Amino acid sequence: MIPAVVLLGGSSVYAARTWVQREVALRVDAQRQHDAASARPRDASTRFSTIVVAAKALPVGVELNRDALREIPWPAEDQLQGSFTTIAKLLEGKDKRNTLATFQANEPILARKITGPGQRPTLAASIEPGFKALTIRVDDVVGVAGFITPGDRVDVLLSRRMKESEAVADVVAQDVKVLGIDQTVDEEASKPKVARSVTVEVGTQDAQRLVVAQSVGALTLVLRRAGAAQIESSRRVTTSDLSHPARESKTREDGGQTTVVVTRNSVRQDYSVPRQGAR
Questions:
Q1: Which of 106, 137, 170, 199 is most buried, by the most CB atoms less than 10 A from its CB?
Q2: CB 182 within 8 A of CB 129
Q3: What is the Cα–Cα distance from 165 to 160, expressed in whole angstroms?
Q4: Which of 173, 172, 214 is nearest to 197 (CA)?
Q5: Which residues contact 39 (CB under 8 A, 6 or more apart)?
Q6: pTM score, whole prediction
Q7: Is 204 exposed, middle or buried (0-12, 13-18, 19+ CB in 10 A)?
Q8: With contact defined as beta carbons under 8 Å apart, do 99 and 113 qualify?
């Protein structure tokens, strides 16, 4: 009976070991399948459409054709406003279309950056709604030594001489977009260029102010930092302010100074005086 008991015990141990190994293998396989399923994108039903992009870098004013364009896959739910799904739709009709801005390779073609069918790639086609283009006279100093390029934003200052010993400077317009330097409208231009004229994009009232200002004094452009769109409070600066710039700066930070306007013989003068109660 002893050999029979040993045989039965060994068989039981072997069967139990085999069952445990099989269960472990099944659990490991199930875990691998779960991990693989979790790694896949959950939304497998995303629909794709196409979008028209630039096949190569395109400068301003170039005519669009099939060689300059190509179609790439694009999520149908995330179509860009003003984009085109096919090249045929963009080029439909007999009239040609040109670029109004520069395009990098694989950059989507948007309707606001190209001309309408048959429309010429002129400056008028690139002006934002509600604005107008105005050209003002400049020189190498007024144009920030030529470092202003199309697409930059500037403030416009007016300097004039009220009398022989009195000069004033006023801020005429702020956060003005530069459309062109002389006859250059390429926003990708990075080389400094000494200009004789600058074309800016302004509203009707700013255009009127700049025309009047240009007739009574000299205009100076002040280049803004990229992204600085805040309209700042300003006041007239006169010759008398040149003698105490440090004191003026400190009182402006403390808020302890105000401006008093005095008119003598039809001549207006601004004076900076401490506020009442301020030290």
A1: 199
A2: no
A3: 11
A4: 214
A5: none
A6: 0.51
A7: exposed
A8: yes
By the 8 A CB rule, do 179 and 150 touch? yes
Percent helix / strand / coil, the chain, rounded to 5: 30, 30, 40
Extended beta strands in the chain, E state? 48-54, 69-75, 132-137, 153-163, 166-181, 197-202, 218-223, 237-238, 257-264, 267-274
CA distance 74 to 84: 11
Cβ atoms < 10 Å from Cβ of 71: 17
d(CA 100, CA 105): 16
Tokens, residue 262: 């005095």
Kindly report each contact of residues 193-198 with a partner whose C-beta sits within 8 Å and lies 24 or more positions away, as own/partner.
193/146, 193/149, 194/140, 194/143, 194/145, 194/146, 195/138, 195/140, 195/143, 195/146, 195/148, 196/137, 196/138, 196/139, 197/135, 197/136, 197/137, 197/138, 198/135, 198/136, 198/138, 198/143, 198/148
Average pLDDT of the chain is 77
Burial 117-141 (b: 16+ CB within 10 A, else e): eeeebeeeebeeeebebbebebeee
Give the integer Cα–Cα distance in Å for 123 and 120: 9
Reported as type and span, the H/E element at residue 15 is helix 2-39
Whether the predicted pLDDT of 129 surpasses 50: yes
Span 181-239, pLDDT tens digits: 776 655 555 555 566 778 889 999 999 989 998 888 888 888 888 777 777 777 888 88
- Residue whose C-alpha is closest to residue 103's, from 86, 83, 88, 122: 83
For 260, the token pair is: 């008093």
> What are the backbone angles phi and psi of residue 212, rounded to the nearest 5°?
-65, -45
Query: Which residues lie closer than 8 Å to 103 by C-beta, 6 or more apart?
Result: 54, 57, 58, 109, 113
